[in-house]
Amino acid sequence: MADDIIIPEPTKAESAAIKSIKEEDVHKICSGQVILTLAVAVKELVENAIDAGAKNVEVKLRDKGLELVEVCDDGCGVKPNDLESMTAKYHTSKIRKFQDLQSVETFGFRGEALSSLCALTEMSIITRHRDCSEAIKIVLDRKGKIISRNCHTRAPGTTVLLTNLFATLPVRRKDFERNIKKEFAKMCQILQAYCLVSTGVRIRCTNQAPNGASSLIMMTQGCEDVLSNIYAIFGRPKLGEIIKLESPLKDSKGDVLTQDELISALQANAGDNANITKEDISSLYNREFELEGYISSCAHGSGRSSKDRQFFYVNSRPCDLKNISKAVNDCYHSFNNSQYPFVYLNIITSRQEVDVNLTPDKRQLMLGNEKLLLSLIRRSLLLTFDQIPATYKLQNTTISDMQPQANNIDLESIDLIPLSTAEKFRNVLSQWKRTGDTAGKAPNVTTKRKCLDEITARTLKMQKIHQFLNTEDIKPSGEFDYKSDPETDEEADKTIQFDKMQLKEESNAFDELVQKIDCKVLTPKKTGCNFVDTKSFNNSDIDTANDVASKDDNAAPPIIEFDVSDSETQEHSNLSSQFFVTLKEIEDSLKAEDAIKSEKKSKAKLERLRFKSEITPSQNKSAEDELQKEISKSSFARMDVVGQFNLGFIICKLDNDLFIIDQHATDEKYNFEMLQRTTNLQYQTLAIPQTLELTAVNEMTLMENLPVFEKNGFKFSINSNAPPTKKVSLLGKPFSKNWEFGKEDIDELIFMLQDAPEGTVCRPSRINAMFASRACRKSIMIGTALKKSTMRQLIQHMGEMEQPWNCPHGRPTMRHLINTAMLLDDTEINENK
């Protein structure tokens, strides 16, 4: 069969020849960019219906949209004269020029949707304008041209029928058929967003199975408030589980804030809002702005296990707002960090502040001054959650806030030096006395310093010490007494002692040091000079000089006087110059040069290494990435066991690389994955079947994946004759000693299945946690001595795991130790020395 397939050759054209693409091909290319999925196709038709003023919109799917998509409305309909231009590219009744985008109030405005659908599917339209007595049915070709036109009967409005969606794009069609369950779930999610925001519009969605049975997916009643739509789609929650958002422009009492009060309030809520100016707030007050919304209560149990019910709008247009979604969830987690909220948030703002013309599906928007908007949303959430009884937000508490405040201390007129400061001062002074360096760093040998400069600098320091020692405010005993608050400190009297005599001794040592330094200030006799070649001094010379100097701690470092000349420049000048350098400075200079060379060699080695991350928690991610990149599953079979270390780790070798493997974490991960694959949890039958308040979409997902739920220990009763949302009842749920499971785990599993590939075994997070606990208890423990065969088996198991790099609790299983080739390089270098 493969030999019969004729693959057309690519177009061969000279690079210099630029020609226009055929109009038909341009139409196909552009149409494929506008209509990407089933969800987008249904969205465009529903938006057209709502823009037409419809009060009833019905979406009918056949085989989840694979066979047919039909959208019927009771809007104003299309006039017979406009039928030709209705499906023409870039023909619309919404705008006339680019400037109209700043004031467009409809969902659509580009005139692309119907034309693009014609190129991707077989389309027919039945429409009747409200001023006409009969309807007209038209059939269109791929270019959007009418190929047949007949009279029809229907009430005013429009019906659009799409057959075999993506039939003209074979690859996309196959992908559509293969992932139809996921595509259907996404379509329902998008449609829910329009159901919630469209007040006064009755939206109904049904699906007809291949066997002819029809089921209701979702429906609203055309209510005039959003909350009723929420109840119609998701069911009525318990009292208090969904609450209305408070206005950020008001205080907790409901009074409108002034501009200055709002700036202060925003800056108090978050430290990063300091850049919000009064001009920003002034423009906010001068334009239309409002936050309409509902959110789950932050009380534990009121949220959800996933973010599947979060809907964001700008001027009632459904959209994806990543930053705002993150801000909402982060704020909610500061009150309830184990769940996600239900969110309905509609941002009403000036249309001039929003750019909706970013993507073909108009789901991505650009907002003016998004930072201010995020601050207002945070304030609204804080005001909302602060009113919930028995909840509070954890505040960052600094150490200074927790320190007890001492009272009755009258030490304002006394300059105190803390004991730790005095000790540090003595240590630095002693080091300076020995080496002439207060910082403890090797001096730079290339810096020319005159002795007088050294003496002057050190004399200034000692003058400050003399001044401190002669201060009359310090008592002779060096003691300072104060009283502490007895409620905060049990010790009534505390004493800070300072040894004044020690400073006097070190001051006298300095005077002796100055007298011992023999310094000559030399005037340069030569215009050019060279520095001494420090490499000419060997280590024995330096050690001898240091031994002499160490006999007397108060002696000055030996000073060597150099005559510096340059043979290359003697014929140009007969002048000479002298400068001083200590043996200690020469030694430090040589050490610094060796350190630089060693660092360069280390960098060269590092560039040849495959594994560069260190064994530290801060580099866990990079270490794991390196292992995934360099180590394949077959690599574990080639590893040699070196031995066991510290009764907890296995050392193994692959080529020139040594690895350390955590024996407990590795065995735990293997047992965990085995439990996930093979365990069928037992269920406990309920005395009374529990009714599940599922949406029609979630109900369909559950019924289509019953084996997955049964593998996780859930048992259901299915009543096919019951109305949607009432077909499933819970008969049994999994049990395991101290672990209890229920509706929250079912909701999480449904959410996972909607995005999981076909055949994936999904487990709720709490069941995974139970498996992790079981795997931990049955695994090889730290402290267990292992035979070489057991170590070999653990390494082989790593090659059989799906993800062997960390245990279920997040602890790494394997890390790179060292490359033995690098050790050989070091040995060769030392031998060459």
From TrEMBL:
Superkingdom, taxonomy of origin: Eukaryota
Record bears the keyword DNA damage: yes
InterPro entries: DNA_mismatch_repair_CS, DNA_mismatch_S5_2-like, HATPase_C_sf, MutL/Mlh/PMS, MutL/Mlh/Pms-like, MutL_C, MutL_C_dimsub, MutL_C_regsub
GO molecular function: ATP binding; ATP hydrolysis activity; ATP-dependent DNA damage sensor activity; mismatched DNA binding
Gene Ontology terms: biological process: mismatch repair
Domain DNA mismatch repair protein S5: 230-386
Any one cellular-component term (Gene Ontology): MutLalpha complex
Keyword DNA damage: yes
Pfam families (UniProt xref): DNA_mis_repair (PF01119), HATPase_c_3 (PF13589), MutL_C (PF08676)
CDD domains: HATPase_MutL-MLH-PMS-like, MutL_Trans_hPMS_2_like
Keywords from the UniProt entry: DNA damage
Domain MutL C-terminal dimerisation: 641-786
Family as reported in the entry's similarity comment: Belongs to the DNA mismatch repair MutL/HexB family.
Name recorded for this polypeptide: MutL C-terminal dimerisation domain-containing protein
Organism classification: Eukaryota, Metazoa, Ecdysozoa, Arthropoda, Hexapoda
